[in-house]
Give the backbone structure.
Amino acid sequence: MKLTVNKDFLNEAIQHVTKAISSRTTLPILSGIKLDASFSGLTLTASDTDISIQSFIPMEHDGKEIIRLGQKGSVVLPAKFFMEIIRKLPSDQIEIEVSQQFQTVIRAGSSEIQMVGLDPEEYPLLPEIEEDKTVTVASDLLKTMIRQTAFAVSATEATPVLTGVQWILNNSTLKLIGCDRHRLAQRHTHMEADENAQFSNVVISGRTLNELSKILPDGNILVDMVVSDNQVLFRMERILFYSRILEGTYPDTSKLIPKSFQTQLVARTRELMDAIDRAYLLSREERSNIVRMTMIDHETIEVSSSSTELGKVTETLVVSGLDGELLKISFNSKYMLDALKVIDSEKVRIGFTGSMSPIIIQPEDGTPILQLILPYRTTN
């Protein structure tokens, strides 16, 4: 294998695929990046068996030569060293030459680096996915939906399926749900989809989705989502992102969501978030994160927290509206902040069905987001 490639294109492709490299892999070859050079371009592949990412560099882009191919071929190079050396090379053009026993020489300007490559035949094949269930989503929307749900997944492996976000496509509605038993984040959107493309229990790891979100292009770029029995593929212009679907049945979270409320308040999202954030500083020191909201009257609420060592924070807020019974309610301030941070609306509506029932947080502008957190029982 011998080729010369544009450094910027190579560096970008490496940055994409290394998101699938794990430092804890049991297969030594998976600590490397596979390079395949052909007459159509250069393909880079990385995998940790849960995630596989493939990035393609074309021979030309916008009429400009990106790759000059001398000889086609393949090699696997150690990812960490390859990534760092390519980033630090001085020249815009990088020559890669692979000889016997996969000995690899990388040249750029006056630099020459010799690397020990591995046999690409030992590298696992990418999953084969049938294209029966394919839906197309705008990249910006996909990125937003992931941001508004993936934070709520469980951080522990006690129930593995809860470390993922559930994807449901039913009756032209795509819904994402993240839940860790203490909180829930849900976002849906209407979309045109073939009836045969519908699915109900596709659960993708929250960690995987955060890595996908970093790769998704900015703008209204269309992304294909291809779903099979145990794999899902997100296909972009020059990137293929494969993810394993988590095993297990996601709990029916619809039963957690109240149908009506005895109290509702509307507040400015930023004002409420800032007040809770200040109270969180004290509750964090107490290692409880507990903040109390007290409804003084139908125009005013009080946000407070206390620490036995540091003291107490009390803040009064004028709300835009408060209907129903006046309540005192305690909650995990970090969970509330996480929920408010992903709401882009100027105002937020919070619904209560009692001091010990789920709290529902939704944007006032009608964006189809629903956040749920469970309150705490406190002694005073």
In short: The first strand starts at residue 2 and ends at 6. Helices lie at 7-17, 79-88, 139-147, 206-215, 269-285, 333-341. The two ends are 73 Å apart (CA to CA).
